[in-house]
Amino acid sequence: MVNPTNWVKVSPLDNTEMGTLRAASSAEIVTMIERARQAQASWNQVGFTARGSILRQAARELESDSLELISVVRAETGKPSRLAQGELTAAIEMAEMMASYGRFASGSLFPSGVPGRQIRVERAPHGVAALVVSFNTPLPNYAWKVFPALMAGNAAILKPSPHTPYSASRFVEALHRAGVPTDVLQLAQGGAETAQALISGEVDLVSFTGGYDAGRSVSEATAGSLKKVILELGGSNPLIIFPDADMAKAVATTLESAYSNAGQRCAAGSRVLLAEQAYEEFRTEFLHQAQTWTWGVNEEDSVSTLIDRQSAEKYESYLQKCIEEGAQVHRVGRGESDNEEVPALVQPALVEGLGATTELGLREIFAPATRLFRFSSEEEAIQVANASSYGLTAAVWTSDVNRAERVVGALQAGVVSINGPTHGAEINIPFGGMKNSGNGTRDAGVAAIDEYSQMRTISTFFQA
Prior knowledge:
Elements: E1 6-10, E2 17-22, H1 26-46, H2 48-64, H3 66-77, H4 81-100, E3 107-110, E4 117-125, E5 128-132, H5 138-151, E6 155-159, H6 165-178, E7 185-187, H7 192-199, E8 205-209, H8 212-222, E9 228-232, E10 237-241, H9 247-259, E11 269-275, H10 279-290, E12 294-295, H11 309-324, E13 328-331, E14 334-335, E15 349-352, H12 359-362, E16 369-375, H13 378-385, E17 390-391, E18 393-397, H14 401-410, E19 415-418, E20 434-435, H15 445-451, E21 453-461
Parallel strand pairs: 5-6, 5-8, 6-7, 8-9, 10-11, 10-18, 11-16, 12-14, 15-16, 18-19
Antiparallel strand pairs: 1-2, 3-4, 4-21, 13-15, 17-20
Helix pairs in contact: 2-4, 2-6, 3-4, 3-6, 4-5, 9-10
């Protein structure tokens, strides 16, 4: 049983308390699911076009709340307002794109070999969707799950991270103002125990974004129920850089991939695989460009805080283990080196000298650090890139189009870019990974509607 518990949300920006929150109890979760179940049938009968109109209004409501939402996200996560603004824009675009499906074809006709028989295939909702999301990009995380779930005709219960409770509250309130019934979209605040109660409850679909260990727990908790499960998990994503790459651009892109959002991205570029001939040039240029990056809590800083003190301590512990294993850790960027008032603030790092296939060399960091490794051949680069148990994103830098296509074809990753970053998902493009980065499902794009729907085949037999 999950008993109601309180927790204090602390802003990583200044370590001040934002407020005290209460986790939903087991009994409350059961009631939420029952209410969602009762409301879902009516919501489905509203139809695609009407639901699309409501989602379009939701986009307007989010836009009208932009200043408050940006302020809340900054206070909750520590990220600069410009990043929060970009994430809000992405969330609004997701609402608008999903709304457009109200005017698109949502089924198909198939010929039949039986005289007098007509076959159509259409989408049907699953029922009640449990949506459990991470803290790192809160508004897009809500949007990527809530909007396709609702558009497909499901009722939804959103369980945000305990690190981002207030942005979730304001997001849900905006959708209620837009016309989404309160029982069709509900909010369950709390931590891991609340998530477990929701996932194990009588829901029809579970959609989870988070780390591998938590994703595995979701799979175990749902294994006996056959409910639909969507998993978007972590990554230890390689950038493979060949000697003929545009080195200045490759370095600039690597810095963005590794350090933007303080490295708290599942798609962060945390492994840089360099051809022997390119290693020193890349390293020198990286250390040079990195000095233009600033870290701190001011709006103009390039890298802000991690989500909390514990994450900062975990990051520092990782770097210390790297040093103990003989690696060289270079602190980069300009900022305040010692700030006791902001314990979640850390300095970005570049790590050299780890074994490319060791545990420390392959681990997901989820903080502003990246690692350099050497390779001597195309085959070795592919082997090292694929050595990770993750397979979310990757990038290949080369001016040789044939080499680029060969390497891309051999990489075990769900999203790959050529001469681009490891991050940067767009709302109309399927996003998800291979291996331990997911279970084959996809967020965003048309694929999202397919994931939150199930196909139903209907046959009509006409009288001769």
